[in-house]
Amino acid sequence: RVGGPLIENKLFYFFLAELQRDERPQPFNFADYKGTTNQAGIDALSQYVSKTYGYETGGYIDNPEKVNADRINAKVDWNVNDNNRLSVSYRYNKGLRYNTSASNSTTINYYNNGYIFPNTTQSVSAELKSTLKGNTNNRLLVTYTDELDDRGALGQLFPRVSIFDGSGTIVFGTENFSAANLLKAKNLTIFDAVKYYKGKQVITIGTDNEFNDVLNTFVRDNFGTYTYNSVADFIGKDRKSTRL
Fold first, then answer.
1. Is residue 176 within 8 Å of residue 157, measured between CB atoms?
2. Percent over 90 (pLDDT), the chain
């Protein structure tokens, strides 16, 4: 971060940049799994899905969560004259989170059954503070924000599949709530207030307006959700499945 005067006692600046790169491992000990299928069978199932459907399930032993973010904050303060001060600021945030489910003693979660959550937000504000005659001041604040959330699948698009495996469950495919999940939001706020001071009394006259333009898309189970009674059922030996 850097900051200081551009013009002494007149014009000032501030700039901040941040980069975040986090990764949290989620290791799994297969010996703890209580399901029927052994580790060789879990690997063979992944290979079967790849060969038969062209879908890569990803691994299941360590599904790390990741967070990447780039942030910028910039501001300029201007003492226009003795009675007016203007501030203009800009904020930018671009983040990407990899949300993954760790395997555990009762569930085998392949890596690509998680989802990604990208977010890009930009905001700019301008504030003018003015001292007027007769114990009166004015504050004008205008802010515009543009936000994009486009949650999506890890890996290729594929139906959600859950396979009962004795005391365990095997899960792969696109996360149910992330196949079609989009938010676009634009927001404009305009605030202006004039205050008049008379002894212990304050009289305020102003306006506070907010304008929103929002697009929200959400379709659950966009590619279907299927449940199978066993691994053999899934590969077609029993042909007993339920589509939810």
1. no
2. 88
For residues 94 and 72, is the Cβ–Cβ distance under 8 A?
no
pTM above 0.90, yes or no: no
Backbone phi and psi for residue 170, each to the nearest 5 degrees, phi listed first: -110, 130
β-bridge pairing 136-153 and 180-198: antiparallel
Low-confidence ranges of the chain (pLDDT < 70): 237-244
- Within 8 A by CB and 6+ apart from 153, the residues are 112, 115, 116, 174, 175, 178, 179
CA torsion 106-110-113-114 (nearest 10°) is: 90
Burial 69-87 (b: 16+ CB within 10 A, else e): eeeebbbbbbeeeeeeebe
